[in-house]
Write a structure and sequence with these properties.
By secondary structure, the protein is α/β, with parallel strands linked by helices. It has a single domain (about 5-250), classed as P-loop containing nucleotide triphosphate hydrolases (Rossmann fold). It is built from 10 helices and 10 strands. A 6-stranded mixed beta sheet has the order 6-7-8-3-9-10, with helices on both faces. A 4-stranded antiparallel beta sheet has the order 2-1-4-5. Strand 4 and strand 5 (about 70) form a beta hairpin. Helix 3 crosses helix 4 and helix 6 packs parallel to helix 7 (about 180-195).
Length: about 250
């Protein structure tokens, strides 16, 4: 089986004062159709930088990103637009991911309009998209992001992300800003959508209990490097690296 996403030797440095920091250090991994891949590690280990490189929110210093067999490492303009048709992202703070002056109705259908659908047809998709994430149109109708709870707003963010039927959904600490009940609801929702649409998911998190619930594979990062990669069960039950063992112990 060919991977839907292949990352090869990805590297990124950031200048800091008079020195530079190697945020992502020559990492390689693959994502297959229907996978849920967890990328775990402590803060500043390179997790979020990795997905920012994959989604081309930041430029790559060296390495390759292959999406559906196409090299997107230097994608710009129309090429970058085609990347976002296949890959969407859900961020940590749901309210902050929306324009506070844009009604949520318009925010959800904006990707559809940007991809050529008329506004009239896009509006017809709203009830369906909201139903997918367990919300009713009456709840969000003519409202702004700050008028919803964190959990509700994250559901809206997921509805917007899946509107154009991407192949890959990247969740960057998508539950960490939510209360425990909302966290479980979002995890259950992601599992349902993954099964329904055969979504491939990359889950960026420091929460190993979350990884246990949804991921079938795990990458452990430390200081910009991948120090261990295996099935979720093997990582949690039989970790090989000392850092992985410490990470697991710290969450028990």
């Amino acid at each position: 089986m060919e991977p839907i996403l292949s990352v090869e030797g990805l590297t990124k440095r950031f200048n800091q004062d008079k020195s530079s920091v190697l945020a992502v250090d020559n990492i390689s991994f693959q994502l297959f159709s229907g996978d849920c891949l967890g990328i775990v590690g402590e803060s500043s280990c390179g997790k979020s930088t990795t997905v920012n490189l994959i989604t081309r929110l930041k430029d790559v210093d060296s390495g390759k990103i292959i999406l559906n067999g196409i090299d997107i490492t230097s994608a710009k303009g129309k090429s970058l637009h085609s990347v976002y048709q296949k890959m969407q992202m859900v961020f940590q703070f749901p309210q902050d991911s929306f324009n506070p002056h844009q009604k949520l109705n318009d925010a959800i259908i904006e990707p559809l309009i940007n991809n050529g659908m008329s506004k009239r047809e896009a509006k017809k998709q709203l009830p369906y998209l909201l139903d997918l994430v367990g919300l009713d149109l009456s709840l969000i109708n003519n409202k702004y992001s700050y008028e919803l709870s964190g959990g509700q707003c994250q559901r809206v963010a997921i509805a917007r992300a899946i509107a154009i039927k991407p192949k890959i959904l990247i969740c960057d600490e998508a539950t960490s800003a939510l209360d425990v009940i909302s966290q479980k609801q979002i995890v259950d929702l992601l599992k349902k959508l993954q099964k329904q649409f055969n979504l491939s998911i990359i889950l960026i998190t420091h929460d190993l209990s979350l990884v246990r619930q949804i991921c079938n594979r795990v990458i452990v990062m430390y200081r910009g490097k991948i120090v261990e990669e295996n099935s979720t069960n093997e990582i949690l039950q039989n970790p090989q690296q000392e850092y992985t063992k410490l990470l697991i112990q710290s969450t028990v």
